Amino acid sequence: MASDADFEPRTLPAFPPMDESGWVDISQIEYNLSLTVAQRIEQYFQWMEFVEIAREAGRKMNGVDTRPIEAAE
């Protein structure tokens, strides 16, 4: 069995700065605040495009259409 002298502790990755609660990544907020309004809007539209692609993939994979009846037609 290995002795304590042979043990080398692993180094952990550097975590981003968090708020006091430990739940909010401050670097994400700082990045988003560094964007212009136009860049934030573009980022939002790109996110919504991704969400729709993911939903469509879920519909195809599961065979369930979760859209309202009017939108599904």
Q: Overview of this structure, please?
A:
The chain has helices at 26-34, 37-62, 69-72. The protein has three helices and no strands. It has a domain at 26-64. The model has no long low-confidence stretch (mean pLDDT 83). With 73 residues, the chain is mainly α. Helix content is 53%, strand content 0%.
Please provide a brief summary of the model.
The protein has a domain of 39 residues. It is 53% helix and 0% strand.
Helix amount, in percent? 40-55%
Q: Number of DSSP strands? A: 0
Query: Whole-number average pLDDT?
Result: 83
Structural class: mainly alpha
Major β-sheet annotation: none
Overall geometric form: flat
Low-confidence regions: none
Order of helices and strands: HHH
Q: Which radius of gyration do the C-alpha atoms yield?
A: 22 Å
Distance between the termini: 67 Å
How many individual helices?
A: 3
Beta content: under 5%
Keywords:
single chain, 3 helices, 73 residues, mainly alpha
Topology:
Layout (H helix, E strand, L loop, with lengths): L25 H9 L2 H26 L6 H4 L1
